[in-house]
Amino acid sequence: MALWLERPLLSVLPFMVRIMFEGLDDIDWASMEHAYGTAEEVPALLWALRSPHTEERRKALDRFFGAVHHQGSVYPSTAASLPFLFELAADGTTPEWAAVVALLVSIGRESLDLGFEDDGTEIEYYPPMGCGQAVAFLRERGAQFAELARDRDPDVRLATIGGLGLFLDDADRAAAVLRERLAVEQGIAARLRIVQAAATLALCLPAATEQVMGWLSGLAADPARGTVTRLAAVVQRARCAPDEIGEDAVPVAVGLLRGTARAIPVRPIAPAPSCPAAPTDRLRPRSPPPSKISTGTRACTHGPQLCCLRSTKPWEPGSPSAPQCWPSS
pTM for this structure? Predict the structure, then answer.
């Protein structure tokens, strides 16, 4: 039986008027920056995300990703916007609801990837970034992500799944929610994200490692599961523990990969339309990214494949490049 929850509507008494974005104007946005200068436009972008006009919402979301969350950067202005983005995500009447949830999850993922060492030590940057503040805020709201993962809207569920492996501090609850979602989700994209989120959970929360590894092993060996899910379990288990990859891993993966050719329908790919050359006068970020302050950490000594396996943000086909490890300072 599918577990869907109705959209979380924020209710108020009839004589009360709900105040949206309370405290937004109390923040000195002009004193903060994003990739292209002052962050004073952030309040207007947040309001535009609630606009009844589709094009206005699209432009605001594009600008948010392009400036406030530029190429995954998490500035202090990015972190300061999180309470208001979360207010949008908690309101089921928000247009582009799934896109707002996806933005929240992206900010949290990048904050963990850029802002913390493997042992959980926060990395210091100059100028300061907002990674620590962002992660603390989102982890305090892990339970709300678990509820969003049960929403009736499949796009909202799909956008939320990644957050289950990032923001829930209770290992048992996080693993239980992921198992529950895998049992009811039918789409391949959702099932792949659930298995990936389980591996991310094990990497971020050591208390979950043993049960996640056992679960992934069981999924990989279960003939009742689809070949796509089983292959994902093999890959994500290797990502969790690259030192434990056995000699049978490659033959098993190849066999499952061949099986996916029969499980996934083949669709013809239409030729891409020709596009004019991109303009060369576009704005560029006004300053280089913050520099990592040396804390005695070591340089990355593993190859790119292992880097991909260890990262909390695995590389996906179509990404501009494989994830890069920070060099030593």
Answer: 0.77
